[in-house]
Amino acid sequence: MDWTLATDSVSITVIENLMDGLTEFDDRLQPRPAIAARWDVSSDGTTYLFQLREDVYWTDGRRVTAGDFEYAWKRLLDPATAAEYAYFLYDIVNAQAYNTGRITDAGLVGVRALDDRTLRVELNKPIVYFPSITTFVVTFPLRRDLVERYGARWTDPANLVTNGPFTLADWRHEYKVVLRANGAYWQGRPALDEVRMYVVNDRSTALSLYETGGLDLVQLPPEAIPSHESDPQFSRVPMLRGYYYGFDVTAPPFDDPRVRRAFARAIDKAELPKILRGGELPTDSWIPPGMFAHNPAIGLRYDPASARALLAAAGYPDGRDFPAVTAMYDTSPVNTLVAENLQAQWKRTLGVTVELENLEWKVYLKRLSSNPPRLFRLGWGADYPDPDNFMALFTGYSGNNHTRWRHAGYDGLIAQAASTADPARRRRLYDETQRILTEEEVPIIPLFFVSQNYLVNPLVRGVRLNAMELLQLKTVSIQP
Amino acid sequence: MLALVVNRLLWGLPVLWLVATLTFALMRAVPGGPFDREKPLPPEIKANVEAKYHLDLPVAQQYLRYLGQLMRGDLGPSYKYLDRDVRAIIAESLPVSAQLGGLAFLVAVVVGLSAGIAAALRPGTWLDRAALVSATIGFALPSFILAVLLILLLAHAWHWLPPALWEGPRHAVLPALALGLGPAAYIARLARTSVLDVSRQEFVRVGRAKGLPPRTVLFAYLLKSGLMPVVTILGPLLAVLITGSFVVEYLFSIPGMGRFFITAVTNRDYPLIMGVTLVYAVVIVVANLAVDLLYGWLDPRIRAQ
């Protein structure tokens, strides 16, 4: 429940309903003012001045101040806190140096409360999506007095002080959270008096509870989707989460871009939603729909003839003499279905034999970071809904790029796009980088974007499920 | 008697040390660490995290540190449930598993013994056959199939009971049955065979011939000797049941300790793996001791030794 340390989607969903930050997302996932009434950006784009509202209070009656943000951000960056999401603020002056212990004076970090209402943030370089970052729970304000008074127990329901639409009434770890409406909430008291959230790990169990009246909203297990798809209670939300196969571009045969393009062209991605049946959206490009600069015209289409021609040009006509390669994935039913389908398609179209190997999740992660397989599957979900989050993934300096692909031109354009304020220019930069990534160099084959599938009790109104997997309850009501 | 208890408990200590050492070695031998993520942490962040949990020390030093902590009764912080320590997690989840396990144990013993003894007293009748058939089915069905069948029938079709969660006595019925009926079947078969065996022995026939009332023969002769093999398995059974079952807790969404036997390993949450393993070992040691004491009560020859 400590939002400085939160990493999993369950905690984040709960905290989102207990707390407000400087900004929040609107329905189109654009940042809009929340506790910050407005913000001004300096002409060079590196200094943000956030002006805070005066009518936002903690549940113990104290006003939320700029100092609460300064304290929270410095606590996030303190190496002793060891927060995993500290790097979210690395664009702030001296943030990385402080977090890595190169400097020890927190006063040098570029965030300061000028007074109770004004927070000044200095960045290393212009970052146009910075107000998107401040929607994320790790940047939410904290009460220094309470954290210091209660130590690790400051998040217990009896001690916890919050500022959002709900308060924490009860919390049984890994089982149940009870939220109660905050009557003094600055945006107005939510319509629901109480919300009970259960952590039900088995989705079939959750569906049983929904069907017997124990729950009003539930995520469907994949096997139950086909039988509920036409139900009026059914709702499907595409997520900002992509699924791809990557190549180790340094080892033969995938060191030849023609082979990588042949493998990409040989996949009829429309087959995947038919076997997975979860509302997957096949894709040839990498920036997901619903995100700025999404462009479905980019990417390599399914084209068996050109796939075979590319492979022949690379020296393997009809797949002859193609070396033995193994595709690796982490063990799960969905990953197995995808891997077997790709294996069959590559055999059918290119005449090549790809062996499959699956590993337990943590073993797989270790393998990816130490000795990446020639061909592997991975996914990526947005941390913030800006294309930078998807595209910077494959830069040479990204720790998440397991393809060993390094492209100085690509890296330069990504950095340029991150600090380009003009939308049209920015879009062109992302089009260009997407072409490099998915048409020319092809270190990865984007396959599809995933959807979440829900059932919602028809009496429950105003449920807004968004592509960031956030569930905002302040707008929800129950039809009398 | 007291000397026996103290002696056995003291012997438990090296057992626990061995369990802790083996577990420590095994979990470190498995590839992948607690902070390996789909989105790998930047190296500097990983360094902060590893320093916080002393994972940057040589493994031997980590081991000694851990043993030192254990001596002080400190099980360390969880690596998955940040800002919580393992002792608190176990203190919260073990009582839930123990309640459920206790109920399941009751189901197993009451149903198992009644069926087994009833069958043994009327061998060859329809009652015996019915008990045998149900026991075979109960024994062969894994608990998760049984759980799903119970949910479908009692929760979905007849709406008698809630299908999951842990909110009161009504919520305990289905998981207790799912967990207890399998062992009940085993106990029934064991009890039937052994009571039947004893009933053919000379001392029982002598008792009957001397005109003892059937009730005395049943309780003082048949059951007291016939239930020895059943008692043998009760200790480990109780230990297994009260420390929680992953499958049943997962299917019924019960906040017990059983699920940590699996999830702590998949998360590589080293302190939690160690914590639940040690709790399990302690419960086994204590339960086996209880069984030995029960033996002594049932069989004077053992007491004499």
Task: Calculate the mean pLDDT score of chain B and round it.
Answer: 89
**Portion in beta strands of chain B:** under 5%
Cα separation of the termini of chain B? 11 Å
The share of residues in extended strands of chain A comes to: 15-25%
Radius of gyration of chain A: 24 Å
What can be said about the biggest beta sheet of chain A?
7 strands, mixed
User: Which descriptor suits the 3D outline of chain A?
Assistant: globular
Average pLDDT reading of chain A: 94
Q: What's the alpha carbon Rg of chain B, rounded to whole Å?
A: 24 Å
Q: Pick out the low-confidence regions of chain B.
A: none
Low-confidence stretches of chain A: none
Shape summary of chain B: flat
Largest interface, with counts of residues having CB < 8 Å to the other chain, equals: A-B, 49 and 45 residues
Structural class of chain A: alpha+beta
Outline of the structure:
The complex is a heterodimer of chains A (480) and B (305). By secondary structure, chain A is an alpha+beta fold.
Topology:
The complex is a heterodimer of chains A (about 475) and B (about 300).
Chain A: H1 9-18, E1 23-25, E2 31-33, E3 36-41, E4 47-52, H2 66-77, H3 95-99, E5 111-115, E6 118-122, H4 130-133, H5 144-150, E7 166-172, E8 176-181, E9 194-198, H6 203-211, E10 217-219, H7 225-228, E11 234-247, H8 257-265, H9 271-276, E12 281-282, H10 304-313, E13 325-330, H11 333-350, E14 354-359, H12 361-370, E15 375-381, H13 387-391, H14 408-418, H15 423-440, E16 444-456, E17 460-461, E18 464-465, E19 471-472, E20 477-478
Parallel strand pairs in A: 13-14, 13-15
Antiparallel strand pairs in A: 1-2, 3-4, 4-6, 5-6, 7-8, 8-9, 10-16, 11-15, 11-16, 12-16, 17-20, 18-19
Helix pairs in contact in A: 8-10, 14-15
Chain B: H1 2-29, H2 43-52, H3 59-71, H4 86-121, H5 126-140, H6 143-157, H7 169-199, H8 202-209, H9 214-226, H10 228-242, H11 246-251, H12 260-266, H13 270-298, H14 300-304
Helix pairs in contact in B: 1-13, 4-5, 4-7, 4-10, 4-13, 5-7, 6-7, 7-9, 7-10, 8-9, 10-13, 12-13
